[in-house]
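Subject: design request, 416 residues
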């Protein structure tokens, strides 16, 4: 990304899955041995003076549902909006696979089940259907009021984009401590995808014009999300690309190319991705003495408080949700991105780029040859964001248990 890159979203999409995302995942989706649960997702989008964010508003007329943006602002907290209340009661994520955000492959005893109508998204039940595959999505709107911009996921090294396992509270003889003892299968295989469609939503615009949110400078809405699949674009952000919690699966520091399930010439097959950003491993910050900064903050949080009788789960909820307000970004060293995904792929031998080669590749605050969408000035764009565990990621072979993880996104735009 060139020097014209400007930050569009600073603390953006601070997404905390702070939350019993119980995952027993094995390669190709071996059936989960426990029921995954989730207590909720907190989503915050922060904008600056170059981009504005709006929630997705729906209006149903004559059996048809129309989408248009609500009030645009610099910051948006989805957890405070009734239209996103489902995020508070979600079931946990369980592995699925997709290459395009339209075809979702789930496991069954005979091979794969295809979900193409979001049937396994945003579910709150805890039965076998959830365990077979579950992913999350949210719709929102972005607009660039000043210029055309190319939108990408980015990271500035401090509170930028990251996915990382939350530390757990552990009992000690003298009280409690926060420990980093998770194995990381969930965060190694988590993916975030952005589905976009630049087709004008003409019918929806008519309802937008008559709504309380209408602004005269916005004369068109993009994002019909209709039946023409050729109009769609899908961008995938892969955090922790060189992190492998089970080192028997892959060399630590290497990159194993993910090939999710898709259709190739009409046949179900593993596919090569065309629009992918790969980030290196995110880590918790440490003090000069080698202690985790977050662990020290936990001791400050509980100092002088009567915590007797509290369970470890209750203390975690207090610390992350009540005390930190689900904001952990200042304690994370968010890693750089591989600057050019095409160069990364071309460096692979077989399906693996060895650790020495990965460390020698040029990194940057964002990936140059992948982007979410090219925003037009003053044209609100609907974006659908997905969160899932990629069932064809090599790290799903670890069968590790993940209590919880935090996910934060920062978007940036440039003129190219």
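Subject: RE: design request

Done. Sequence follows.
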């Amino acid at each position: 990304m060139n020097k014209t890159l400007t930050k569009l979203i600073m603390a953006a999409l601070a997404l905390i899955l702070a939350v019993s995302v119980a995952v027993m995942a094995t390669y190709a989706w071996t059936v989960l041995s426990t029921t995954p649960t989730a207590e909720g997702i907190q989503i915050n989008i922060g904008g600056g003076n170059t981009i504005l964010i709006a929630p997705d508003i729906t209006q149903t007329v004559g059996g048809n549902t129309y989408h248009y943006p609500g009030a645009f602002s610099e910051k948006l907290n989805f957890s405070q909006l009734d239209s996103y209340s489902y995020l508070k009661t979600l079931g946990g994520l369980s592995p699925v696979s997709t290459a395009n955000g339209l075809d979702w492959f789930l496991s069954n005893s005979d091979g794969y089940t295809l979900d193409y109508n979001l049937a396994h998204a945003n579910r709150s039940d805890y039965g076998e259907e959830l365990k077979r595959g579950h992913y999350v999505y949210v719709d929102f709107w972005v607009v660039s009021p000043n210029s055309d911009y190319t939108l990408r996921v980015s990271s500035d090294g401090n509170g930028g984009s990251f996915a990382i396992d939350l530390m757990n509270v552990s009992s000690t003889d003298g009280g409690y401590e926060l420990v980093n003892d998770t194995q990381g299968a969930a965060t190694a295989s988590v993916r975030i995808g952005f589905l976009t469609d630049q087709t004008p939503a003409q019918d929806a615009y008519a309802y937008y014009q008559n709504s309380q949110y209408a602004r005269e400078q916005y004369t068109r809405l993009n994002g019909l999300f209709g039946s023409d699949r050729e109009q769609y674009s899908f961008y995938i952000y892969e955090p922790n690309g060189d992190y492998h919690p089970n080192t028997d699966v892959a060399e630590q520091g290497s990159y194993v190319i993910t090939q999710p399930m898709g259709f190739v010439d009409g046949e179900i097959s593993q596919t090569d991705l065309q629009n992918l950003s790969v980030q290196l491993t995110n880590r918790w910050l440490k003090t000069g003495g080698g202690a985790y900064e977050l662990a020290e903050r936990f001791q400050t949080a509980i100092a002088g408080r009567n915590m007797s009788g509290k369970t470890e789960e209750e203390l975690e909820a207090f610390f992350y949700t009540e005390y930190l307000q689900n904001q952990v970004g200042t304690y994370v060293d968010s890693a750089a991105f591989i600057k050019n995904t095409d160069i990364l792929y071309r460096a692979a031998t077989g399906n693996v780029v060895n650790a020495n080669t990965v460390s020698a590749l040029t990194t940057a605050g964002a990936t140059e040859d992948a982007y979410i969408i090219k925003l037009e000035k003053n044209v609100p764009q609907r974006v659908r964001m997905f969160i899932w565990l990629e069932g064809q990621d090599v790290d799903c072979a670890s069968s590790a248990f993940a209590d919880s993880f935090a996910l934060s996104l920062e978007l940036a735009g440039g003129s190219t």
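The radius of gyration is 21 Å.
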